[in-house]
């Protein structure tokens, strides 16, 4: 039976009347002038890829500016980092205004609702299966210190550009951004049923190297007090993976200890003063791909929520590039996406 309960949606105010934009059937919706967006907004003050809405497991919605030239605003305040939306918040992109609604009711799993240009976004039931995955968590170092030293508008452009470019790089190397969190992103690679091939691990390593190179170039475009750096945690293991998207627009997410450990590994890099921390299984697969033992050192770290020490293999981006150089596949210097949006 089709539910008649209210569902999360946006109201787009136009001269021709109000338009209803459904937020059912996925976890991520993009806005901009470009045709590759979920919602194409023909406003000359809006960037090609302007902003993004993301829904997380708790049901909360986050608005993320993607480095737009003129900014994204919630209730008149410019967004510089991902912000949680509240029911009836007003969103402004360029000269376009929308109202966000997420009634505190159960989200239906069967809904037929209209959307922009009468496209159908029919929800599908979430199906979780156990899969072998690699989870990469990357965050910007010294981000809090930077926020105290630069203008809010510059900060918004910097973090938005970083999010957008990170998404472009991660897609280029075969994954997607599962979460945007503050000054961090999480990406997931889904492997075969039993093993990870050397080619897959090298692809992930190349993505991580490209992310570092992109981040280090941002100070050439923006007036930053210092070049930006990132830290990363990479973990491989089994997790429950579900498709919460539609048939023509799949949207996967992963849950479980493998995901949690990736976040903790990233945090551990600050404890031991390194750039990258690999989980044991990840390191074993990288070793099969040709990673030399002397490049990444073994450490025993205490991860949040765990009583016993966890073994990690940690090192610098220069170590990662030395490994990739030996494979002949080190990413070249890239300026991917670091142009006016």
Automatic annotation (TrEMBL):
This is Adenylate/guanylate cyclase domain-containing protein. GO terms for molecular function: adenylate cyclase activity. PROSITE patterns: FHA_DOMAIN, GUANYLATE_CYCLASE_2. InterPro entries: A/G_cyclase, Adenylyl/Guanylyl_Cyclase_3/4, FHA_dom, Nucleotide_cyclase, SMAD_FHA_dom_sf. Transmembrane segments: none annotated. Residues 29-79 form the FHA domain. GO terms for biological process: cyclic nucleotide biosynthetic process; intracellular signal transduction. Gene3D superfamilies: 2.60.200.20, Nucleotide cyclase (3.30.70.1230). Belongs to the adenylyl cyclase class-3 family. Pfam families: FHA (PF00498), Guanylate_cyc (PF00211). Residues 134-266 form the Guanylate cyclase domain. It comes from the Bacteria.
